[in-house]
Design a protein that fits this description.
Blueprint: H1 16-40, H2 57-79, H3 90-108, H4 112-120, H5 130-161
Length: about 160
């Protein structure tokens, strides 16, 4: 509570880790949406060699769905640090941010053993196929980064509300 007795939902939340994590999570969502739009429009950069969305209907549908979901994640992240976010109940925003953090982190966890093997020298980059390189070095680290950013943003939002 502040001096007037109203809840401090957004007082100072844009400063420090709280702010950069939420804005970073928003940027993560925008970039993720942009990449999926690029792929849906026929772009191939960033895809493993030989992968084509238009010959894989399931992947094409996932890419199309990823665009509005990513833009929703962007809006969620921004709602944590902007006054306009107050129209959505704080608990719902917190639940969404923690849920996004958990989903993205869990999505990336299967590649942690590969990262550990690389760090310890048990595996080398030459041991990976093209698709494994894509997943291990680009795709899953991107999800892990999103999970960390949304987790920090959710934590900052929680702390600012106390």
């Amino acid at each position: 509570m502040n001096a007037t007795g109203t809840a401090r939902l957004h007082d100072g939340i844009g400063r420090g880790v709280r702010g950069w994590a939420a804005y970073g999570a928003a940027a993560w969502g925008l970039l993720f949406a942009a990449v999926h739009v690029y792929w849906v429009l026929g772009g191939r950069w960033g895809l493993p060699a030989g992968m084509d969305l238009f010959s894989n209907t399931a992947l094409l549908v996932i890419d199309i769905i990823a665009v509005p979901v990513s833009l929703g994640a962007t809006a969620l992240a921004l709602s944590l640090v902007n006054a306009w976010g107050r129209w959505v109940p704080a608990r719902l925003r917190a639940l969404g941010a923690w849920g996004a953090a958990a989903l993205m982190t869990v999505h990336a966890l299967p590649t942690v053993p590969d990262w550990a093997a690389l760090a310890t020298g048990t595996r080398t980059t030459g041991d990976f196929t093209g698709n494994e390189r894509f997943v291990t070095f680009l795709y899953e680290p991107w999800f892990m980064a999103g999970g960390v950013l949304f987790g920090l943003a959710a934590f900052g939002f929680h702390r600012a509300r106390r």
